[in-house]
Amino acid sequence: MEEALREEALPQVVNVCRIVPAGLGESVGDYAALSVAYNQMRKSGA
Fold first, then answer.
1. Measured distance CA(18)–CA(39) in Å, rounded
2. Region 11-35: what's the mean pLDDT?
3. pTM of the entire structure?
4. Which of 9, 18, 43, 46 could be cross-linked to 13 through a Cys-Cys bond (beta carbons 3.0 to 4.6 Å apart)?
């Protein structure tokens, strides 16, 4: 990932970008699914 970042990103971005483990850990998929469901409910007026 860091190699791709160095190859693809602007140098000033690479200098300030820090890659760290996700704070949500293994729960990230659960939060994503809940977010999608919540947004769909809001769109439908539920």
1. 30
2. 90
3. 0.49
4. 9
